[in-house]
Amino acid sequence: MSAPVVARATAQGARSGVRMSSVLSGMPKAPMSKFEPSDFLNDRYTIMDERLSVVKSRLNRPLTLAEKIVYGHLDDPANQDIERGVSYLRLRPDRVAMQDATAQMAMLQFISSGLPKTAVPSTIHCDHLIEGTTSPQDDRDGKFGGEADLSLANEVNKEVYNFLASAGAKYGVGFWKPGSGIIHQIVLENYAFPGGLMIGTDSHTPNAGGLGMCAVGVGGADAVDVMAGLPWELKCPKVIGVKLTGSMSAWTSPKDVICKVAGILTVKGGTGAIVEYFGPGVETMSCTGMATICNMGAEIGATTSVFPYNPRMAKYLASTGRSDIAALCDKFQANLVPDEGATYDQLIEVNLTELEPHVNGPFTPDLAHPISVFADAIKKNGWPSELKAGLIGSCTNSSYEDMARAASIAKQALDAGIKAKVPFTISPGSEQIRATIERDGIMDIFNKVGGTVLSNSCGPCIGQWKRTDVAKGEANSIVTSFNRNFAARNDGNPATHAFVTSPELVTAFAIAGDLSFNPEKDTLVAADGSELALKSPFGDELPELGFDPGMDTFQAPPEDGSGVPLDVDPNSNRLQLLEPFVKLGESIDDATILIKTKGKCTTDHISMAGPWLKYRGHLDNISNNMLIGAVNAENDEVNKVKNLMTGEYGAVPDVARAYKAAGVKWVVIGDENYGEGSSREHAALEPRHLGGAAIIVRSFARIHETNLKKQGMLPLTFANPADYDAVQPTDKLSIKGLDSFTPGVPLTVEATRANGEKYSFTVNHTFNDNQINWFKNGSALNAMAAASMSA
Length: 791
Known about the structure:
By secondary structure, the chain is α/β, with parallel strands linked by helices. It contains 25 helices and 36 strands. Strands 26-31-32-33-36-35-34 form a 7-stranded mixed beta barrel. A 6-stranded mixed sheet has the order 9-8-5-6-7-25, sandwiched between helices. The longest helix is centred in the N-terminal third of the chain and has 19 residues, at 41-59. The relative contact order is 0.11. Mean pLDDT is 95; it is low at 8-17. Its main location: mitochondrion.
């Protein structure tokens, strides 16, 4: 990153040294949420202000908003080393949120800790295990769509839902039932608050930054630490400032801001940093629009993204029944915006007035195309121009405003007598959004234009799409309002060219049936043969009649859940209680290379979602998908590696199991930004379970690197990235220096080729003392248990 730059804060910018304790005293008590009536935000803000007072006196400089929130949650503000990009901070988050696919492993790990109840407010959200359909299905009695999909999910996932419900009741965790909505929308509607610090077991947890919260995606082991009452470790993030000026108009939307920023920073440009938006353009967009930007910020590798508190947030809080929190924020505002003169490690400026609508993709979310050049890019690259499907909703773009703007385009088509030319799906973000758009006639417009309304869940965005219109391997194009578009992510077809954009553009493309259509200048043909020029999308920021909560889908934990039995069948193929990992020891000699991966290797490549989601609670079963999507550098094939004991080729998990059975330790060699994408810790648990010792790569994505450490593995990086090319898949590797494993001190790999030739190279690591203790104990969970026994 460039040298720190100074940026003026917004008009509401605060000056350092302002104490808010006196301002807060006498304010009415504001519960953190209606579900936690005895846990008050006033108390959190008071503690945050006290911590910030200590930090400001130590640093004696203006603070960014990101710093205020993070440093305001330090476990020991008086003694904590604080240096951006260097120090490891010990933090005290306000809450934990978990989606059902990751909550299974997180709760299984929490159970292993032996603790009776979570130490911070925590919730489980059932949103990942519901498969979406757009055509009649035999397993749904010839039906398809939201109700049919939810009904089947409740049946096939019954044991998982029962386990999560019972674990939530036993350990004091709120449980949002299937059909309630997507975790991030539920959090925004009920739990997020300006200035808060939350961790969530999903990479798009930063969505809550649209409401001024520092919300970070983590693996389940991090969630377990926080639920156990331990401080949470985070490398002190750098801060990237994005100054917004001007205002959006016509077809431009908040999605275009993050699509442009992704094009600037790329998928790893935000790694190790919090992206902080500020400037006069902030207040020109809605709170849910800000959430969209923060949500997709995960695609640039950012720790999280955040916006300063402003009137649009206050408006959203009031509309979701939290006027008391808004009133408190108004008084506490000095700590909810950056200080004047705060410095950023990198500064980006985006003029909203000049910003064009964007379409990003295919195969990566950082390949940005302004709409004015998108058709040319399609032709130049030979991408399929004919559209096969349009999909809107998901956690990124499923707000009331998003749905209303998309419906305004669909309504114009209906008035002209035309409908969508391709399958068009709508995924409401929550039961509240679904009920409200149904009441206000928006859902009726979608149905009439030929759309299929799916359940209130993630669905196709995470690969939960039973797609039947295109054969696997057939090149085709789809466009979505989702956040991520890696190969095969949405439908399991690596030949599907997936593009991401705003819901209104998706709707226009679905009606046109072709990606070369530019709604800003091109026309459609109406039913009477006349030309139809679509007017710019429009929609209310919030529903005029207020939100309709819909069905009650929340299960509150009892006051005392100690007597609640856990619902786990020992013969289940979906749930499996965990056994502690064995220590790797201080000597890793002659380790075999399981696979040398080539190019992009995301968590989707390491541990696929889609049909594998059903095994997220059974470590041994889900390990059968380990690295089956990674490209083998030896032969450019997927899921085909040589077993060096037999000389035969086999599937990656099968060869790993063979090595483990023979007592052979193995490593993975990888390229840049290894493990980007989802927060899923299964991508770390599976290699550990199948006998892996180390992952040696050119660079890591933040969450995956931490997840590997948590499970007692060695995430290492080539000191010289060119050494990646020198390593051959048949080499044997010995990792030296573990007997004196020390923070900041590189390790040495001594390698032996198949012909006996020896060579060596240096590898770096980012372990601190606490993380080295995890390694020496075999995992962070083992270290927790050891500390408990010695206490």
